[in-house]
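yo

u said u wanted the structure for the complex thing, so here. seqs first:
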Amino acid sequence: MSTIEQNAPRGRARRTRSLTLVGAALVVVGGLAAAGCTEKEVASDDGSVQVIEVALTDAGCEPSSLSATAGPTTFKVSNDDAGGVTEFEVLTADGGRVLGESENIGPGLDGSFSLTLKAGSYQTYCPGGSKEKGTLEVADGGSGLTGDPAAQAQAVSTYLAYVQQQADEGVSRTTQFADAVKAGDLAKAQSLFAWAREPYETIEPIAESFGDLDPRIDAREGDVPAADWTGFHRIEEALWVQQSTAGLAPLADQLVADMTTLARSIPSVQLEPSQIANGAVALLDEVSASKITGEEDRYSHTDLADFAANVAGAKAAFQAVEPLLAADEADLVSTIQQRFADLDTALAPYRVAGGPADGYVLYTDLTPAQTAALAGSVDALAEPLSRVAALVLQ
Amino acid sequence: MTDPGSDEHRDGISRRRLLAVAGAAAGGLVVGGLAGGAVGVASASGDDGSSTGTVAFHGEHQAGIATAAQDRLLFASYDVVTPRRADLEKMLREWTAAAERLTAGQPVGDPATSAALPPTDTGEAEGLHPARLTLTVGFGPTLFELEGTDRFGLAAQRPDALVDLPAFPGDALEADRSGGDLCIQACGDDPQVLFHAVRNLTRIGRGVVRLRWSQEGFGRTSSTTASQATPRNLLGFKDGTDNLRAGTAELDDSVWATADDGSAWMAGGSYMVTRRIRNLIEVWDRTSLAEQERVIGRVRATGAPLGSSSERDPIDLAAKDAAGLPLIDPDAHVAVANQDALGIHILRRGYNFTDGLDPRVGQLDAGLFFIAYQRDPRAQFIPMQQRLAASDLLNEYIKHVGSAVFAVPPGLQPGQWWGQGLMES
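structre next:
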């Protein structure tokens, strides 16, 4: 889904894929192609997927006014000779959120991306053109989505209930952690750190979809300008490197406030089942990209607690959408269930009573061979899981 | 690729038909399984170095052994991480199906899948020639028995010839460059085609196998057919002059196991030994030419044995110079490794390698990735290496840092899968 640009603000290092939201009436395409469709059939005008062709010109997007019908849509972007315009984006009507884009389309190149459009107005954007902004009007029509709407709604509500529960738990735990920090109790603050993070780590892709919230809560040193660095890892650095709680009270209060904002925002979240499945993979990609390298909790070395929480979140997401998978995907389901079990088995030796990382050993206690084995188990699970998003709507 | 000549097969070839036909016209190359017959070895493989064609996947023996040595290697050794035999069997079937397509120059899997799914094939070989790709599978001792455990109910099928190699004097083996439960030897003429093949097999194997170590190689260091010129190794010398040649009774006798050897499922198979032999490049480079030639026993420029004039002259260990001294030092590499003198023959199929710099010492990490095929390592590689390790003058300039041994099962007929003979015996 690399063509789907998420909503992280420009100019900030974007650490992971987050879920494309939501309040935005557009979703990442799930069941774009019916079973057996070839790529060519997808692009053909067979009624199941509409294709919108856009040319990049020095004037901007051509045409600058687009119209479409709600449903799965592929944007094919081409550039004959526009040297200064190489990108096409679809944004929410207010321009606040990028829903999909195709980048680096230089002269002579083309590209494409797919979205499932819902009725409404959107903005198009071809940066560098003399008229950069255009419009996209989407009329109501066949939804393009197939499957059982009631089952899909059930999957979404099951998952959102989990997300809300985790977000609320995150507020509660973060509050206790902040209290220890503000009380100057270094040992207690250290002991609560991994535990306080755990709920957040189970729903991180949702949190990341709220623009500024994730960097405020979870940026690592260097992800943001030093002056803007706040959240868990800023406090972690002080607790472990400075060995001090001095001056942390405002940071602790802001963390609680940001977690509270997150929890209050959950009811406004709208999701498609395919996004939930993508979120499960995104959580495992989090593990592959930063937990398994020990980069996440680089001062406290409590990465395994985050690791376990990411896996738990992925499992909850998969379980929510699993009823949507067709009976003929039973092999895939059993493979994924087996690999969740295998991953749990792989983590078990590092789960120790009273372990310093919320019941786990410190990351630094692992040998390179043990780290490699855990990484292998994560990849083994993520591979079949990456097929789920496309199958849940069929 | 089930029935040569079927529509499915012809469709498979057609994507690259123009290229393949061009190659055949230029080099007399026989394309893929269209060759017919069950030879499946060097005769179907562009002996003259044509680098665009395909090598038949099916045949009496696996391709990649007696096949004319291609220019590049990517060797992958895997650990099996699943405890379940059914998972292993399923993966071996999937690997076989993928290998059939890959060696025919086709992408793995069904290309007609949804755009919303991750692509089945990773795509980087699109538009490239098949590059004479061969994929050869092997089973290591630890597949049959690991630390005394019969992991998959296969211990009784372990061939007697699949021994754990003994420690040889001077060995400096590193565990993370040695051993493995399964291996894939990928050979071909384009490193990107090899990477693509190993990457996709590794991806298919996720959750069942995990890469243990891998080795890229270049500049084949052996010729395996009479028409191939002898290449040079990184010491600058011709290597592999004295090697078995495809199509000879000597190779058949020395390389292929038979049912009478003890394991019926290995009939038509072979045993592979790999050794990652690092050259102490910096030391060698400051050694005089005369000393280098004394160590090897050949003239660097021509490859001829010392005292002889041409590369293929017999090695005469009794020849003396005017002063009555032996022309070839009795401990020179060619003297100690002399296959005729030992009465032992192996099929060498090694490649030069470099992994860049060894950061511990700031020296080049480069050398020879030695691969040898044989009928029984107990009678072939092991006695040969014992003799080399004991007295080869070259030992001062090399170090064995990786080692592995694998049982390489026989070739497949359409519809069969890698390991079927083992699993069903």
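Chain B is about 25% helix and 20% strand. The CA atoms of residues 122 and 200 of chain B lie 7 Å apart.
cya
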